[in-house]
Amino acid sequence: MSKHHISTIINGEPTEFLCEPQLTLLDVLRDELHLTGSKEGCSSGDCGACSVTVDGRLVCSCLMLAVEAEGHKIETIEGMARGHDLHPLQRKFLEHAALQCGFCTPGLLVAAKALLDRNSNPTETETRYWLAGNLCRCTGYDKVIRAVLDAAAELRAE
Amino acid sequence: MLDYTAPSTVEEAVRILVEAPGTAKVLSGGTDLLVQLRSGRAKPGLIVDIKKIPGISGIRERDGGFVIGASTPGAVIGECEALQRAWPGVVEAANLIGSTQVQGRASLAGNLCNASPAADSVPALIAARATCVVAGPRGQREVPVESIATAPGRTSLGPGEFIVEIYLPKRSPRSADAYLRFIPRTEMDIAVVGVAVSLTLDAGGVCTDARVVLGAVAPTAILVPEAVAALVGRKLDEAALAALDQAARRACKPIDDKRGTIEYRTKVAGVLARRTATIAFERAGERR
C-alpha cells in the first residue's frame, strides 16, 4: 500500500503529510498532526464532534479521506483563538456555561463560527437548525444557543 | 488493501473503472461511502475520486434548465437562487439530507447511486423529469433519473459507468414543485415517507400536468400515475385531494421496520400527498 503525499493549508500554515488512502482527515489531524481538538464521536457523520471547514465549507472530518485534502484550506478548532485571546464564541461558551464534559464543544464552536461567518444575525431557529448536526449529551442545547446568539450580537457591535 | 486515485477527465475515470471491475468505488461527497468503508459494508480495492474532473461540481443554466454537476454539494444547491426559484421542491429535498456538515459534501448523484428507497432528493428529481448523463466505456448516455435505482442499494449502472451531471429541464409558466417527508423528529433522520409533486396550472388554476412520486414506501421511489389522474383537470379542492390521498395509499408497498409499520406508512403517504400537492398548487398559483 503506497502512501500519498498531501499538501494543504491548515489554520493558515502550509502543512504536508504522508497518509494511507483509507485514513480519514480526522485520523490524520489527530494521530499524525496531533491536532487533537477535533474529536471522534461517532465516525459516521452523525455527531459533528469532528467538524472542520474545508475552503470555508463546514464538513465532518470523519466523512472525508485525508487524501482529499490535497490543495485545500482547512480550519480546525486550533485556529480559532488568536494566541491567548479567545474568539468571542469561545468566551461566550464559558460565560454561558455552554459546556460540561466539553467533548462536543470544539465541533459546536467550529460549526457556530461557520454560521456567523455567513450570517451575522441568525435567528434562534436558524441557529438551532444549523447546529442540528452537533450532538451534545450533557449540557443540552439551550445554553449553547444563547452563547452563539450572544456572541453574534457582540460581533455585530464591533 | 485500498488505493486512491483522482482522475482529471471523464475518459480517464471511465478507463480506470473499467480496468478495476468490481473493486473500484466512485467517490463524490463520500457521506455514504465513508460510512460503508468504516463499517466494512463496502470493501473496494480502489477509490476513484471524481471531484478533480472540471465541471463535475457546480450549477450552470442550459436551454432554460439547469445542469447540476454530479459532485455539487447540497449546500451549493441551496445557495443557488435561480435554481431555488425554478425548482423549490428539488432544492428543499436536497437540503433535507443530513446535517449542515453533510450538506457541505453530499451530492445528488451520490444520493441517487446510494439507491436508498428513502433518499430524499430522488422523488423530487423524478417528479421534476430530471435526467442524468451517464459516462461509460461506450461514451455518454442520457437517461431519466427513475431508471437509475433498481432495488435497495442497486443501480442500473454498468461496469465503468458513473453519473457526470443531472439536468433539470426548463419550467413552463405557472409550474411548481414541492417535497415533504415525514420523520419522527424535525431534523437529521431518514424518511418514513417522502412525497414529491410537480405540476403545471392553466390561467384558471386548473392542473394541466403533474408528476407524483412516493419515497420510502417501496424498494425504489415510485411514480404514481393514478395520483396524476386525481390532479389533472382539477383545481385544488377536496375532491382532488381525496382522490390523490387514495391513489397514494393504494400505490404503497412499504415494509415494516423501526421507523414505521406498513399501515402507518400507508396512512402517512396519503396525508403527505395532500400536503405536498397543496404546497405545489399554491406555489404554481403565485407564478404568472
**What series of H and E elements makes up the topology of chain B?**
EHEHEEEHHHHHHEEEEEEEEEHHH
Largest interface: A-B, 34 and 28 residues
Overall tally of domains of chain A = 2
Straight-line distance between termini of chain B:
58 Å
Give helix % range of chain B: 25-40%
Mean pLDDT of chain A: 96
Strand arrangement in the largest pleated sheet of chain B: 4-5-10-6-7
- CATH C-level of the largest domain in chain A: Alpha Beta
Major β-sheet annotation of chain A: 5 strands, mixed
Radius of gyration of chain A: 16 Å
What is the name of the CATH topology of the largest domain in chain A?
A: Ubiquitin-like (UB roll)
- Structural class of the helix and strand makeup of chain B? alpha+beta
Cα shape of chain A: globular
So what's the overall shape of chain B? globular
Please indicate the percent range of residues of chain A in DSSP E strands (runs of 2 or more).
15-25%
Trace the largest sheet of chain A across and list its strands: 2-1-5-3-4
CATH architecture heading of the largest domain in chain A: Roll
Please characterize this protein's 3D structure.
The complex is a heterodimer of chains A (158) and B (288). Chain A has 158 residues and is α+β, with helices and mostly antiparallel strands. Chain A folds into two domains: 4-79, Roll (Ubiquitin-like (UB roll)); 88-157, DNA polymerase, domain 1 (Orthogonal Bundle), CATH 1.10.150. Helices cover 34% and strands 16% of the residues of chain A. Chain A contains five helices and five strands; from the N terminus they run E-E-H-E-E-E-H-H-H-H. Chain A has a five-stranded mixed sheet, with helices on both faces. The longest helix of chain A has 16 residues, at 142-157. The mean pLDDT of chain A is 96. Chain B is of the alpha+beta class and 288 residues long. Chain B has two domains: 3-168, Uridine Diphospho-n-acetylenolpyruvylglucosamine Reductase, domain 3 (2-Layer Sandwich), CATH 3.30.465; 181-285, CO dehydrogenase flavoprotein, C-terminal domain (Enolase-like, domain 1), CATH 3.30.390. Chain B is built from eleven helices and 14 strands. Chain B has helices at residues 10-19, 33-39, 74-79, 81-86, 88-95, 100-103, 108-114, 121-127, 225-231, 238-251, 262-285, and strands spanning 3-5, 24-27, 46-49, 59-62, 65-69, 131-136, 139-144, 149-151, 154-155, 162-168, 175-182, 193-201, 207-215, 222-223. In chain B, helix 5 runs antiparallel to helix 8 (121-127), helix 9 (225-231) packs antiparallel against helix 10 (238-251) and helix 10 (238-251) packs across helix 11 (262-285). Chain B is globular and about 60 Å long. The model of chain B has no long low-confidence stretch (mean pLDDT 96). The interface between A and B is medium-sized, with 34 and 28 residues.
